User: Fold Inner membrane transport protein YeaN from Microbacterium foliorum.
Amino acid sequence: MGGGVADLVTSGAQPLWRGRALALIGIVLVAFSLRSAVASLSPVIDHVAEDFPVSSVVVGLIGAAPPVCFAVFGLLTPLFERRFGLERVAVVAIALIAAGLLLRSLAVDSTSLLAATAVVFAGVGSGNVLLPPLVKKYFPDRLGLMMTVYSTTMAVSTFVPPLVAVPIADTAGWRVSLGLWGVFAAIALVPWVTMLLAHRTAGPAARVPVSGSAADSTSTDAETDADAETDADADSRAASLATGPIGTAPANPRVFGRLWRLPLAWSIALVFGASSTVAYVSFSWLPTIMIDVGGVSPSNAGLLLSLFGLMGLPCSLIVPILIVRFQATRPVFFFAITSGLIGLAGFLFFPTVGLPLWVVLFGLAPALFPVALVLLSIRARTPESAVALSGFVQSIGYAVAAVFPLLIGLLHDVTDSWVIPLWVLVGVLIAVIPAGWVAGRRRTIEEDWERRYGRW
Assistant:
């Protein structure tokens, strides 16, 4: 049955632009805004501090805002979507991102800066949940391709803002540098509002009936044998599931409850948490660390943050292939951990020698993120279990990640040095090693339960 539906999808594939050009443009623009909102502030925080004080606590809270909002709105957004519809909630989410980014550029003190940032990440948290089902609705016949476009756009938008933020701030001021990304987000509203007004939102989904069939039944068959699936299929399903409970398929409470007793589920959650910790600490503090420890200028610190973000692009493309096709979960995991530790050692012991090399190596540590995405798909036997696993991993992982941006800032304030904060990151990467070993076991959460407690 799964193969028949898959054949239907393949035979019914439509050109990307036919009848859904606005959806394609809208998805790309929203994907760009999701990450640019995260990566655009820390490179110019020194410029902001020239106008009003920005304490380490505020910077830490700003760094903690993304994972907190992702967790909260990852749970709330599906409720809003079922009540008001996918596109309407997407328009509200994009409007929140645009409004928050523009308000952030108008901040007059650290409180208003923090409040505007909370608005931004309320929208980003919802957008993270909404984009995969939007892709599934409008491009059910091109899921693998569109998920590649979606994830690649997000990777690009991670390294572009730090690349240009400081030069723009130097030339036109930090308010223009921050507000520019609000303009991009506002432009992303246009295609979705146009589609709502034109009443065309249901067309593409109706032409190729995939929801609950093709993607789900294909994944049900494929997840029982990871060797049988292509990297594009696994990556698209993993990216969809990793954003949390989406669409109208809430996690089964019985399945979710069992995950608390499974080492495999906890191990994936901790891998996800370690990856998110490295990412959000870096987006919050890496430019400042580079200035203080490496002795670089603010513009070069922004370039180094951009280099850090750039390393996520090849990882997002290569890691799913290595794990799905070659079963290389543990080698990829240990490569990421080792690279991150070498990069941190460079920051600690040789910060003024080969600094770009240390940033490149440290930037490979977030390869743990695509590792976790793929594991969400191949470590569950059914779509229902995968959704439950995604919700569990997201809850634990983002809770862990939310602690560290603030903790790193407080440790820096107390010690007046970056040595202890950097050693804390070393500790995070070392502490997650046992979890990575467990996550590398080639079994599903159902098999893990059956080995311990009997029938699933």
